[in-house]
Amino acid sequence: MSVEAMVSLIRSRGVRDVPLLRALRAVPREHFVPKTLRDYAYNDYPLSIGQGQTISQPYMVALMTARLDVSPGEKVLEIGTGSGYQTALLAELGLEVYTVEVLPELHAQARERLTALGYEKIHFRLGDGYQGWPEHAPYAGIIVTAAPRQIPLPLLAQLAEGGNLIIPTGPPGRHQILWKVMRVSGEIKKIRLGDVAFVPLVHDPSTSDD
User: Does the active-site annotation cover 12?
Assistant: First the structure.
């Protein structure tokens, strides 16, 4: 599948945000998958990136990004840098991105890859995503690319007034739900976006900043 075919499929499924579709065309997804899988980079399903992790299905990446509902120049937090593809899309949209990855090898690879591709306004942290990145809170948007069993309370605390948190929750290999969580007038409100399947969010309190 080509990048144009991928974008057309995503658009046909209801994602119509023009800047997002432009960003999907601009980010070279083939650079974010293993070399042996580059022929499949734009196909609409997740691909393994090693260490039990995946690069998410393009439609799911687009849906989650669209539902984040943030504007250029705003500050967002990404939990689970992974391959760096979602990170690149957020940067392509003109956002200031703070991204946290718990696995050292993926953290180093994504940082090197995104730097080589020329993406700016991305801040990298090696650490436990459950804790977010409180030093730079609050965030207009928080996006979590792996599934904890429940929404981590530290992430709710770091969400700005009027901000949105997009997160899947549920046990691995079983029923999971994608949520949009909003802070409105100081209160937390949740909207169920649908059923999903994500790898579990790795929780390792022993990690530290690099």
Answer: no
